[in-house]
Design goal:
Blueprint lengths: L3 E2 L39 H5 L8 E2 L2 H10 L3 E6 L4 H11 L2 H10 L1 E6 L4 H15 L3 E2 L1 E5 L5 E5 L13 H14 L1 H21 L15 H12 L16 H11 L6 H16 L14 E2 L7 E2 L2 E2 H17 L1 E2 L2 E2 H19 E2 L14 E2 L2 E2 L2 E4 L2 E4 L4 E2 L1 H7 L2 H10 L13 E2 L8 H19 L6 E2 L2 E2 H17 L3 H18 E2 L4 E7 L2 E6 L2 H18 L2 H18 E2 L2 E2 L7 H6 L16 H16 L2 H10 L3 H4 L8 H11 L4 E5 L4 H11 L7 E5 L8 H7 L15 E6 L2 E2 L6 H7 L2 H4 L1
Parallel strand pairs: 2-4, 3-4, 27-28
Antiparallel strand pairs: 1-5, 3-6, 6-7, 8-9, 10-15, 11-12, 13-14, 15-20, 16-17, 18-19, 21-23, 22-23, 23-24, 25-26, 27-29, 29-30
Helix pairs in contact: 4-6, 8-10, 9-10, 9-11, 9-24, 11-12, 11-16, 13-14, 14-15, 16-17, 16-18, 17-18, 18-19, 18-21, 21-22, 21-24
Length: about 750
Amino acid sequence: MQAEQTPDAGPDGGTTEPGTTEQPATQPVATQPGAHNALGGEPSAYLRQHAGNPVHWQPFGDQAFAYAAARNVPVFLSIGYAACHWCHVMAHESFEDQATADYLNAHFVAVKVDREERPDVDAVYMAATQAISGEGGWPMSVFLTSDGLPFHAGTYFPPRPMPGRPSFLQLLEAVRDAWDERRDAVEQNARSLSQNMGHAQLSAAVDLSGPPELLDAELLPAAVLSLARSEDPDDGGFGDAPKFPPSAVLEFLIRHAAVPSETAGAARDMAGRTLAAMARSALFDQLDGGFARYSVTRDWSVPHFEKMLYDNAQLLRVYVHWIRLGGTPGFPAAEAAEVSGRTAEWMLASLGLPAADGGRTAPSDAVALASSLDADSVVDGEHHEGASYLWTVGGLDQLLDADDAAAVARMMNVGAQGTVSEFGSPLHPARALTGEEAALWAEVRAPLQAARAARPQPARDDKVVAGWNGLAVAALAEAGAVLDRPELLDAAVRIAGYLEEVHWRAATGELVRVSHSGTARGIGGLLEDYAFCAEGFLALFSVTGSAHWYRLAESVISAACARFIVDGKLADSTGESEQVFNAQGRQPGLDPFDNATPSGAAAFAGVLLGYAALSGSAEHRITAGNIMSLLPPIAPRAPRVAGWLLATAQAAAAGPVEAAVVGPPGPARDALHRALLGSPSPGLVVALGDDPDSGAGAAEHAQGVPLLRGRTAGADGVPLVYLCRDMVCERPVASVAEVLESLSPDRIS
C-alpha cells in the first residue's frame, strides 16, 4: 500500500518498534474540553469527514496541547486532506474502529489537521517525519510532546501488521510504552530533533541585507544538462514512478528554450516530450479535461485520480507558454491549445464557486475556485479510487455501436483486464491520434461524457485557498489572451475581485489564506499566498491594462516584505503557532525547494523581479537577486526542486524585457498588445495604457505605473511600444513587425 506522497519521496513504510499485541483495557476519559470529537463545527471539508469518528479529534491549537499537558499524555497528530485516497483508507480501517478509537482516546490527545489549511503545520512535521522515518506522505502520523516537539512519526499504518510495518494499534501501544517507561529519552530525542531542524533552518536562511552576487552564466545550462540526465526520454517526465507533473521545471525549460544557447534545443525537446506525454496520457482527463495529481506508473497510464487546483492552474499556464514558444513537430502548439482550453474549462466548470452558497455553478458565474476533487467516488457506500473515471469493454459496448466501441477500446487502451480495479481502466491514447481517430473521438465524447456524468461523482473540497486562486488568475488571464478567449479573462477578473474583497484586508495589510462560503477565516497567508496572489494581479494588469491590479499587487508585495522579512532574513510564515515554532527549533522557517507548487521563496523572487521591472525599484530587484542566491548549491545537484528559481533566474538573465504600450484604444494598439502577450521572452513585463498626456488617464498613470510615466503616443496619436532591458531603452516602435523584431530570440540573448 502507498500513501499520498511528496514529489520524489520513496514508498511509505519505515521502521517502528512494535509493541505487544495484547490490547489493554481502555481507561475512561473525563468529560471536559477535548473529551469528545470537536470537528463537527469546523469549516474544513477534511476535518468534517472525520467529525463522525469515535476518535475524540481536536483541531490544532493551544487548547488541544494544553489538554495533553493536563492529562500528561502525548499528542497524536494526523495530517491529510480531503481528496487523499489513503487518508480515507486509514480513516475507515482505524479511525472508524471503536476499539482503536477507545485506546487512542485513553492514552493520547488526537489532533486532526487539514494540510491545505495549515501548510505551516504540515511543512514542519513533514520535515520531522522524513527525518525520523526516511519517508513522507499523507496520511501523516506524528507523535508530539505537549509543547509540539515530534518524537516519532510515519505515514499510513494498516489495521493488521504487514511485512516491515506494524499495525496502527501496535504502534500506539509501542509509543505509549515508550512514553510511560522511557520518558526522559523520548523528550531528549524530541529536543535534539527540534534543535537539528533549527540548525537546518539557519543554514537555509537567505541574507537580504547586502548586494546579491551575480549568478554564474553557466548555472542555467548546467541545470538543463542535469535535468537531461534524469529525464525519461521514452515516457516523458523525470525519474521513475510515481511521476508528478514537473510544472515549475517545465516553466524553466520553456524559458530557457526561448533564448539561443547550446542547451536551448535540449530544453525545448525535454519540455515537449513531457508535455506531450502528459497530454496524451491517463493523467489528463481525456473526456472532461484537467489533470490528476500524479501517475503511479512510469508511463503515466494509471493516475492517482484526485484533481487539484494548484496542479491545473500551473499546467494551464505552462501549456499556454508552450503555445507562445511555438511547439515542436512532436507536440505542436495546436494540440497544446486544445489541452489548455479544456483544462481551463474544467477548472471553471468543476471547481468554480458562486458568490455565496458554495454550490456547483456555471463557468460564467464562478467567482472563486475550490481546492480539489477527491480521488475516490462512493459506490454502494464504499470508497473506490477513480471509479468515476474508469471504463470497461462492456461499458463501451453498451453506449456505442460495436465497431465504434471496439475502435475506442483499442484507441484508448481499454482492455479486458482493468488496469486500476474491477471498474476498469482510464481512457488514454498514449500517442497522437490520427485524423480518423480524432474524428471518431470527437463524435463519441459527448455520449461518453453524459454516461460518466450519471455515475457517482467524486466529492469536492470547497475551501478557497488564496495562493492557489492567485495561480489560477495568472493562468486564466494569460490563457484568455493567448487563446483569444475573453471569457477566460473575465473569469480571472472575477476571481481576482473575490481575492481582493474576501481575502485581502487592506486596512491591516493582511491576506487571509482560506475562505469558506465567502468568509475568510483562520491563519494569515503564508509567503506563497502573498507571492502567488501578487503574481496573479500583475498578470491581470499586463493583460487588461487596469492599473487597479498593479496597485493591488504593489500593496500585497509591500505587506509581504513587512511580514516575512525580519532582521534581514526571509521566512515562509510568521509564527502562527507556538508549537510549530518549537518544533523547528524556534527559528523562522524557509523551505527553498519546490514541492507541488513553487516554494514561497522562489515565487516571491519571481514576483519581485516582475514588479521591479514595472516600478523601477532597485530595492526589490536586489531582494529578488538575494533570494536567487539560493540557486548555486541547489541547481547543479537537484534542479528538479528548484524549477521556479531557475525560471526566475532565466528571466533575470534576459533583462527581463520591459514593454510599455501607449496610445488610444483601438485595433492598432490591440495588435501591438497581442504581439507582446504572445511573446515567449522570459519574464517579459507588459504595461498597457492610454497616452498619459491625453487627459483622463494622466493622473492614474502618474500615480500608478512608473513604466508608463513619460510615455506618449506618436504623431496623430499613433500607438507606440517602448522596449527596455537592463535599464536601456530602444527607440519606440509602431508596428507589430518591429515589435517582433525587437523581441526576436537573438535580441533577447
